[in-house]
């Protein structure tokens, strides 16, 4: 029997289950990116003072995606080459997750897998159906939409294990398991964390609106595509029962005005 979790939004993450502030480098870069005067040299100087950010930026620029002819070790070159948009999403995403201090490697690996799968699915859907939405905002929001689960992993690990066990045994969504046990939703916890760390508004929005229940609400296109990306990535990963699969299928077809064959074609692309 799981103990109930009582959340007081006024004290949570402050007086109990407290978290440190975001790394100074992340805060400074966020502030600079909000001003039109941000330049790659200044951003590179800030990143150079944070070993974790240096490692991540260099990992991105040296990845197979860019296929550069030789390995890059110069942060200033990496920032200039990748561009400020890419740098911003790398810094925010990595900074937020690293600041959580999660030590469970398997859970962190699962988080990153689903987050990147969701981001790639959202990017695909945006190109196909919502090309007017900002791809940079969508990418960062998709990567961080599930940070509420990191709250469970860090502060309520036994609850998280039971929620995962219930999902695996019943083939249901995490949000359905939360409802079953009458626990705070990870979307709510993620929203509190976004507000606590003053993350971009679109990240907070993605944390709040990414579940199946939000598909039936009259949300914005941004909210709908985040929810779709999350749900289709989850569906493609497997493990869901037939009822859950059908709910996602019907919600997707209704939202995107798809035939059954259209939906199957889209899922083939997502896979």
Radius of gyration: 19 Å
CATH architecture of the largest domain: Orthogonal Bundle
Low-confidence stretches: none
Work out the helix count. Answer: 15
Give a quick account of the main beta sheet: strands, pairing sense, barrel closure. Answer: none
The total domain count is 2
CATH homologous superfamily annotation of the largest domain:
Hypothetical protein af1432
* Beta-strand content bin: under 5%
Helix and strand sequence: HHHHHHHHHHHHHHH
Please tell me what the overall shape is. Answer: globular
The residue fraction in helices comes out at 55-70%
What is the CA–CA distance across the termini?
37 Å
* pLDDT averaged over residues: 91
- What structural class do helix, strand and pairing data support? mainly alpha
CATH uppermost class of the largest domain:
Mainly Alpha
Write the layout of secondary structure elements.
Blueprint: H1 24-33, H2 40-48, H3 51-61, H4 75-82, H5 84-99, H6 105-129, H7 135-144, H8 147-155, H9 157-170, H10 174-180, H11 186-196, H12 201-208, H13 221-237, H14 242-256, H15 260-270
Helix pairs in contact: 1-5, 2-4, 3-4, 3-5, 5-7, 6-7, 6-13, 7-12, 8-9, 8-11, 9-10, 11-12, 13-14
